[in-house]
Prior knowledge:
The structure is a homodimer. Chain A is an alpha/beta fold. Chain A has 2 domains: 5-19 and 31-168 and 192-305 and 530-537, Aldehyde Dehydrogenase, Chain A, domain 1 (3-Layer(aba) Sandwich), CATH 3.40.605.10; 310-502, Aldehyde Dehydrogenase, Chain A, domain 2, CATH 3.40.309.10. Helices cover 39% and strands 19% of the residues of chain A. The first copy, chain A, has 19 helices and 21 strands. Chain A has a 7-stranded mixed beta sheet with strand order 14-17-18-11-10-19-20, sandwiched between helices. In chain A, strands 7-6-5-8-9 form a 5-stranded parallel beta sheet, with helices on both faces. A 3-stranded antiparallel beta sheet of chain A has the order 3-4-21, with no helix packed on it. Chains A and B meet through strand 3, strand 4, helix 18, strand 20 and helix 19 of A and strand 3, strand 4, helix 18, strand 20 and helix 19 of B. Strand 20 (500-502) of chain A pairs parallel with strand 21 (542-549) of chain B, so a sheet runs across the interface.
Amino acid sequence: xxxxxxxxxxxxxxxxxxxxxxxxxxxxxxxxxxxxxxxxxxxxxxxxxxxxxxxxxxxxxxxxxxxxxxxxxxxxxxxxxxxxxxxxxxxxxxxxxxxxxxxxxxxxxxxxxxxxxxxxxxxxxxxxxxxxxxxxxxxxxxxxxxxxxxxxxxxxxxxxxxxxxxxxxxxxxxxxxxxxxxxxxxxxxxxxxxxxxxxxxxxxxxxxxxxxxxxxxxxxxxxxxxxxxxxxxxxxxxxxxxxxxxxxxxxxxxxxxxxxxxxxxxxxxxxxxxxxxxxxxxxxxxxxxxxxxxxxxxxxxxxxxxxxxxxxxxxxxxxxxxxxxxxxxxxxxxxxxxxxxxxxxxxxxxxxxxxxxxxxxxxxxxxxxxxxxxxxxxxxxxxxxxxxxxxxxxxxxxxxxxxxxxxxxxxxxxxxxxxxxxxxxxxxxxxxxxxxxxxxxxxxxxxxxxxxxxxxxxxxxxxxxxxxxxxxxxxxxxxxxxxxxxxxxxxxxxxxxxxxxxxxxxxxxxxxxxxxxxxxxxxxxxxxxxxxxxxxxxxxxxxxxxxxxxx
Amino acid sequence: xxxxxxxxxxxxxxxxxxxxxxxxxxxxxxxxxxxxxxxxxxxxxxxxxxxxxxxxxxxxxxxxxxxxxxxxxxxxxxxxxxxxxxxxxxxxxxxxxxxxxxxxxxxxxxxxxxxxxxxxxxxxxxxxxxxxxxxxxxxxxxxxxxxxxxxxxxxxxxxxxxxxxxxxxxxxxxxxxxxxxxxxxxxxxxxxxxxxxxxxxxxxxxxxxxxxxxxxxxxxxxxxxxxxxxxxxxxxxxxxxxxxxxxxxxxxxxxxxxxxxxxxxxxxxxxxxxxxxxxxxxxxxxxxxxxxxxxxxxxxxxxxxxxxxxxxxxxxxxxxxxxxxxxxxxxxxxxxxxxxxxxxxxxxxxxxxxxxxxxxxxxxxxxxxxxxxxxxxxxxxxxxxxxxxxxxxxxxxxxxxxxxxxxxxxxxxxxxxxxxxxxxxxxxxxxxxxxxxxxxxxxxxxxxxxxxxxxxxxxxxxxxxxxxxxxxxxxxxxxxxxxxxxxxxxxxxxxxxxxxxxxxxxxxxxxxxxxxxxxxxxxxxxxxxxxxxxxxxxxxxxxxxxxxxxx
Lengths: 551, 551
């Protein structure tokens, strides 16, 4: 069947945006776009799910029920349990679904997958509740990141996959002139899927980081087992349940997508990843586990691991909007974003501005005041910071005084009026000298910001480059009014495959990557080997096979 | 600078052919297309090179001179020596060339690379002499494989690279509507090359297997070190010398491409491959070394290794043209093609034809007679067989009687009237039972053909599939008049990422893969991880990096 006009138009628009890299959003990011009653109904639905078995997945024959999610806002367990299955059951079901899914036409796959995104959008507010109360993101971020931004990233992967899968003709007559006669062959070109996919989720962005790989594998014909982080299951469970419903309604095997929930005390990730039939793995998480995943033989692997993101401050017309922008960037979701800046390189000689050189000490003080002002604000503070997802992050932040630098601003618990039990913590700011690389050369996930005092901007660039090359980086923010220095920063950072965001002020932050336009992670440095969504991200999931026949 | 109209038109035509997979050849395959006098002049040039230092590379500061090529046609050493360099010298020069080459615009790179192909075409006859007297290919195959077919494959990689590199806009203004205001960013998208490339050549197809990776790396901005097989240097040396001349004439650093010659007793391949600055490796050769190359950490690697190619004979309207076609396919260049069929699966119950079932014995006898007839023909025999490149291949063929099967046709030395000392050997045909997988589950490179007697076609398909999955396959030929069986063969073989050539008779053989249309190797089974030329083949050589600026 050809694609319906409605869904073809969605895919065409997405492909057009991907090719032009211009602004595009299929799913509006404003919560109000989804109806007045949606938030209230979602809250009811979320409350009803708590303490219950989550049955919406309709995965039959559960071998057990497990759940260990706790809200960083209330400190209470959600009490939702999910069905568990052995690795063999999961892989057998995936293999079975593969038999039919791989032969579904690209148009038919695209039709049902776009339909699933259209179904998911009606649950954005429920997914937002689930995201807030597992990741600790504030509601607005939960809504946008796990709702419209996730759907857009999924559509991006789906659309680019569609474009690549239909790039060559499915069949043709090939004729080679050979003097008076010619050789005529019928040729068929088939994009053959690699096999069972595994998507390994993380605890902070359980939907956003999982759906690109999920939809990239699905459009290319691979069934997928989604293995969420045990502390953040519900957001992606709602997504998987919707996809399964839409698949079933369209007459497909719902096991084209399965959720594989495990418990912290008995993780099944390695068992799944090492299974011979699992051919494609998408992973978001720690570098140590990511390196293990990348080293597995005979797998196609897409990783997003840890990195150390730098800020290079050289000069600015006006420092105030720069420091405001940066204070928000480091405070947003308490630095629990893979794109959050961590290391801020400032020259000891100060920063040139339109009103003269501002001394290093003045810059640092002004930045400290900006962070303290934002995070101490009764409303903006908790709304920006969200809550701390894990004990490990919270403890790391509380102990940041012992990292080895000079504490310029001590981290502090912050009150959230709406959720008195919420675990909210404002960033600490630590000053380190350029020579103390042992302090700043690792990712300090969470609300810890390091100010690194350098000799000059050249040294700042050199260190930011070294960090990206050796430890990975997803973003680099830079501030300079000098075109030559800007060009130098671009060239040096791109040589270690790190994108630069230059002179961002106002309502745009280095943390943000827009679907259809910005590549998220380049795949070229240790922060990850893959990119949302470049052509490789879809092409590596299938193999072009060309048959020839004499007719 | 934009591309010249002449060269833009060549790239546009190539991109058009790649996208449509229709017949296209920029470089005519007939030797006469290159002038009446060309063969004679080439022979003179080839004779003049023998016994001398090969200085055309103009690689300064040789640390030694080495050469060990011997003609399989005369048994004599060519006596040509090539300059040698330490790995450090080669990599330092490549790094230095990288500094400028990476910043050359895609159009400018394309211009000089197309110019190099246009320059190389004037040397096709010399390259053919060099290929014949190192690989043992007959002259016509030497000419076509190392000349026009190689240039076309190089152009294919270059053109697809050009298409991918220009796929996204280099710069744009991105505007996100945000209520009354909007966010405006200037974005730049850069395809950043990975780093120094290494192309490791083989002794049988020194040009054809090397130039796709060479041109794919060059167009994507990576400098390349070409490491040929010590026994087959001259053909690719002529190519590298021409590229260096064209680069120099255009004002570029000729060390964008270097030749790295070594000797059998002191190979430098591992030293080069393991060098930290070598980021991209293209390899053709044995599976054991290929597996080592694939396992090197932090490299992007493209391999073509060994495989076991199958023929499945189920049924045919007329057996005679089938067996004629197959006898040529197994004899061509004495089975020293990676695409040559090795295992011929024939059901014990015989083969259905329009004139009734032909018994297994009759089929085998007719095939044996067809091979003996072709290879014993005084002119067609040596012209088809060429000569045996290596001692190892010759000895394997001579000892094929001890492989474990029943010798149906013994291999035999064949006389070549033009070259009395030529090492020419006709294929031996060995019969094995389906249960004796240990005999037929490995590549027996060279003139050895196995007939495997199966229970029925289902078993033939099952075994061909297993061979491809476990040991790799580049091609599979099948003969059937039954549409259901054909569909079954397609589905089974494509599940192990092996292309099927169905019912080939007449002037088209399973060994042949046409540039711009047929993918050579799929990259999906152990025969290799890469494909000439799918999008991955170029995309993995560079990284998309997107910068953003507030203006």
